[in-house]
Write a structure and sequence with these properties.
Length: 147
């Protein structure tokens, strides 16, 4: 079970993670990941051979929030998907750098995905978001042929 201290609750926290975070999607989920500056300074510690290695930042805990829209299904299906994602995320938060904020958005395919498939999708999305360079989006912009 995901402890209360590890849950995102405020709308502003969700918005900040989605707006400023690294985004990666795999299968039935999209992950928005925000890594604190202290962890970015030590990113070689967690991007080396062991991407799940947590960087110790005193006093900070990793937090997760979930977005499951009505496009996923009715209330019963949405709550089932949320429970599955909460349980999967609880196991993975310890492997993230301390102070990391994760927002997991379920896509409509999540309604028919098995628990194991959701776990694989979440693992893939987290790994991709951790590898992504925070400045990558700005480098993707073209200059329109101008120098």
């Amino acid at each position: 079970m995901l402890q209360a201290a590890h849950r995102l609750r405020r709308s502003a926290d969700f918005a900040a993670a989605v707006r400023a975070g690294r985004r990666a999607g795999r299968g039935a989920v999209v992950v928005h990941l925000t890594v604190p500056a202290a962890a970015i300074e030590h990113e070689t510690a967690w991007q080396g051979a062991d991407p799940g290695h947590a960087v110790a930042v005193s006093g900070q805990v990793s937090q997760a929030g979930f977005v499951v829209s009505k496009a996923v299904g009715n209330a019963v299906i949405r709550n089932t998907v949320k429970r599955r994602l909460r349980h999967l995320a609880a196991d993975r938060l310890d492997g993230l750098p301390a102070g990391t904020t994760v927002v997991v958005r379920a896509l409509p395919q999540a309604a028919s995905a098995s628990y194991e498939q959701l776990g694989r999708d979440l693992d893939g999305a987290l790994a991709a978001a951790l590898k992504r360079d925070p400045g990558q989006a700005s480098r993707r912009r073209s200059t329109g042929g101008k120098t």
